[in-house]
Design brief:
- The structure is a single chain.
- The chain is built from two helices and 15 strands.
- With about 220 residues, the chain is mainly beta.
- It has two domains: about 100 residues, Electron Transport, Fmn-binding Protein, Chain A (Pnp Oxidase, Chain A); about 120 residues, predicted glycosyltransferase like domains (Thrombin, subunit H).
- The chain has a six-stranded antiparallel barrel with strand order 1-2-3-8-7-6. Strands 10-11-12-15-14-13 form a six-stranded antiparallel barrel.
- A hairpin with a 5-residue loop joins strand 7 and strand 8.
């Protein structure tokens, strides 16, 4: 596996500290590299540097187009630059830990959507938007609670607003449709597959899921 090709400069990293009072998951970024070591941004927790020492083992995970990868590494040195850095050993191997489109995380995202007409591309004339609430999300689709009448294989058109990015004009195909008990204002649930989405938008979804996983792990 080509480590240099997969692990690119400026890629976001999840750094897992394995032991001590600050064991847990933190965000970082790959600053630069050479054949012997990687230099990453020193992880921060609540405004302070996470205490790590030379010789300490870390697990680092990152996302790219092929999925999520992880490797074990060791801290070589601390570099107190303007942006504090860590030098860690370059991995000899990477382990692929999951398929990117199948990782599903719980979310709470509001959205409005149109049910598309028979052509699967445009709303029916005069159709009004429906309201939905996404309750989980993956790179391949989502589950929504909603107020519409949806059937298997119907298409819906919607925007999806993430914390730092808005995805426009996604088309989703209904893969599952059922009622919720007890009934509520959003008394139906649908499993929706992203059937038409820009690849750069899908990558934003994957990035959001990756960061959401870190946040959920910190709460656990």
């Amino acid at each position: 596996m080509d480590t240099e090709k997969l692990l690119k400069i400026n890629v976001r990293l999840e750094v897992e500290v394995l032991s001590g009072d600050f064991s847990g998951f933190y965000l970082s970024r790959l600053e630069h590299r050479d054949n012997r070591h990687l230099v990453i941004v020193h992880p921060v927790h609540e405004g302070a540097l996470v205490p790590v020492s030379p010789g300490e083992e870390l697990v680092i995970r990152f996302l790219n187009d092929g999925g999520v990868f992880e490797f074990h590494t060791e801290v070589i040195s601390l570099q107190p630059e303007r942006t504090p850095l860590l030098a860690v050993t370059t991995p000899s191997t990477l382990t692929k830990i999951q398929r990117r489109a199948h990782v599903r995380v719980p979310v709470s995202l509001e959205l409005d959507f149109h049910v598309l007409g028979p052509d699967g591309k445009h709303p029916a004339p005069g159709a009004k938007p429906h309201h939905g609430h996404a309750v989980d999300l993956s790179g391949g689709g989502m589950s929504i609670h909603h107020d519409a009448t949806l059937a298997m294989d119907q298409r819906i058109l919607f925007d999806l607003v993430l914390p730092r990015y808005t995805l426009k004009n996604i088309i989703g195909r209904v893969m599952r449709a059922q009622e919720i008990a007890p009934p509520s204002s959003h008394a139906r649930v649908a499993g929706v597959e992203f059937s038409a989405i820009r690849e750069k938008d899908r990558e934003q979804v994957i990035r959001y899921i990756f960061e959401r996983q870190i946040a959920l792990k910190k709460k656990a």
